[in-house]
Design a protein that fits this description.
CATH superfamily of the largest domain: Aminoglycoside phosphotransferase (APH), C-terminal lobe
CATH architecture of the largest domain: Alpha-Beta Complex
Number of strands: 10
Radius of gyration: 20 Å
Bound molecules: 2-acetamido-2-deoxy-1-O-phosphono-alpha-D-glucopyranose, magnesium ion
Largest sheet: 5 strands, antiparallel
Order of helices and strands: HEEEHHEEEHHHHEEEEHHHHHH
Strand order of the largest sheet: 1-2-3-5-4
Amino acid sequence: MTPSDLATVTHVAEQFRLGGAVTSVAVFSGGHINRSYLVATDAPGDSKRFLVQAVNTAVFKSPFAVMDNIERVTSHLRGRLLRDGATDVSRRVLELVKTQAGPVWHHDASGFWRCYRFVERTRAELSASTPEQAFTAGHAFGNFLRQLDDFPPPPLHETIPRFHDTPNRVAEFTKSVLANAAGRASGSRREIDALQRMSVYADALGVPLHYGVIPWRVVHNDAKLSNVLLDADSGEAICVTDFDTVMPGTALYDFGDMVRSMSSRAAEDATDTASIDIDPRLFEALAAGYIKGARGSLTNAEKGLLTLSGIVITFEQAIRFLTDHLDGDRYYGAARPNHNLERARSQIAVLEALIKRRDALERIVADLA
Ligand code: GN1
Ligand code: MG
């Protein structure tokens, strides 16, 4: 962190009701879109550390709408936890901190900021290592779906329009291939061709959703393993995080995203693509955890599309990474040259493995359902 970044984040942190003075600030890595900092204070009691985040307003064009959603969702989740008799509510749902001025955000020339209480004694993982981990994370997102099944009107804001509109993602991808803004199309020809061949999957969730075969629900929309906090001692998934894209959608967006990040052991940007595969035991544990966590809220039509959802969302993510590579890494950024191309390749490898193993995975779901 540069001294000027440190001064900025310290100043921003001081705008929130931390209950004490800032003693240290560190970059908190993870997440492609927003910038996060871990801020420690000398506040008395257990709540000494905070996660201060700069919301990426190029991506979230209406950060006020994002914060409105998060306030409503976190307070609903808190209410459901209390109703269900949970004892450790402060570890099971994120808590926004207000500014001295009152709102849960601070906005100045340095950006649009928010602050959460840091959930202590937890960790996050980028890729699943054991079936137990896939089960507990799947269970946490199933539980999240159930806790939001009585979310009251009005509907949440659409914080990013057409977020999981996969055919629209394909259209944007096609435009990027044609525009070739960063001059990278010829070096990505194999990946472009592979994804164009797989475009048949693009509408496989949108059609059932828009024609009423599966219901609209309040869903997370970024349900990857790294968005659930695991207890540092027991490994139990205790708290779902990252509510920026919680909005109407299908449960299958969430399950599909989990398949993408939890049914293989490969990191999202793994480069040894030849070794990337799906482990059916991870997939089975994930599906079992999700169905159990949802406690009967999934319809038979949703259950019947669980396997396909993994294919669709992994395809969509591959398209998004490759689009960004072609556009010059403007959305996700890149820590090294060709980073988004590598991410796209690893997602294509996961996708190919899902397609190859589809029948076996369908049988697993049929046996569980
Ligand atoms: C982005 O910023 P982060 O890591 O929470 C992205 C998701 C992608 C994910 C891939 C707003 O999430 O849609 O699935 O990266 N979020 C946004 O890891 O685009
Ligand atoms: Mg996210």
